[in-house]
Write a structure and sequence with these properties.
The chain is α/β, with parallel strands linked by helices. It has six helices and seven strands; from the N terminus they run E-H-E-H-E-E-H-E-E-H-E-H-H.
Length: 196
């Protein structure tokens, strides 16, 4: 199966390799704008599908994977920080609290255009973060390309987390078990459709 990842995220590439895929990477940079009238799950699924559709014309045959992660606290959706000040604001908000990480992923088949989107939720609890620790982390540059301004893997952000309820890999950027079973379902239904 030809799998195309509509993202340059090194974390998602590594996760796919971890379960045996070697995806083709066709990144699409779209504005990650939220529709605040919709829940985080719908925003994440919509953005994931937009990313997949962005590269659709470049793919003659295969399944395109788009994904998007959103951090949610008190109903407020946090994407990637705009700048260092925004990153500090986000980390200060998350300090000593439990938030929700929502990752949406979309599968888009080429050339048929058949698609499917799902979202997964994980609860993450932070210890209280001293201001100087937030400053050092932000100064490292690491938070700038991550939803909620932190990473949980291969990153100092891991020491912020005191508890997780749900899929760890969802916090990294792709819920592997849910993705794997959804992909199997998507491929099976596609085979059934073609056989009719």
């Amino acid at each position: 199966m030809h799998l195309i990842l509509a993202s340059r995220s090194p974390r998602r590439i590594q996760l796919l390799r971890q379960i045996g895929f070697e995806p083709q990477v066709l990144a699409c940079d779209i504005p990650e704008e939220f529709d605040h009238s919709l829940p985080a799950e719908e925003n994440a699924k919509s953005l994931a599908l937009q990313k997949a559709r962005c590269v659709f014309d470049q793919v003659s045959d295969g399944i395109i994977l788009g994904a998007d992660t959103i951090v949610v606290l008190d109903g407020q959706m946090l994407g990637k920080p705009l700048d260092e000040s925004d990153a500090k604001r986000m980390l200060s908000l998350l300090s000593g609290r439990t938030h929700t990480v929502v990752t949406g992923f979309a599968l888009l088949e080429s050339p048929s255009g058949r698609s499917l989107a799902r979202a997964e939720r994980t609860l993450v609890t932070f210890r209280r973060l001293p201001a100087d620790e937030i400053d050092r982390y932000v100064a490292s540059g690491s938070p700038m390309d991550k939803a909620g301004a932190y990473g949980i893997q291969d990153d100092y952000g891991a020491v912020f987390v005191t508890g997780i309820d749900g899929c760890f890999y969802n916090v990294v950027g792709l819920p592997l078990s849910r993705f794997y079973t959804t992909l199997a379902e998507f491929r099976t239904h596609g085979t059934m459709s073609k056989g009719r």
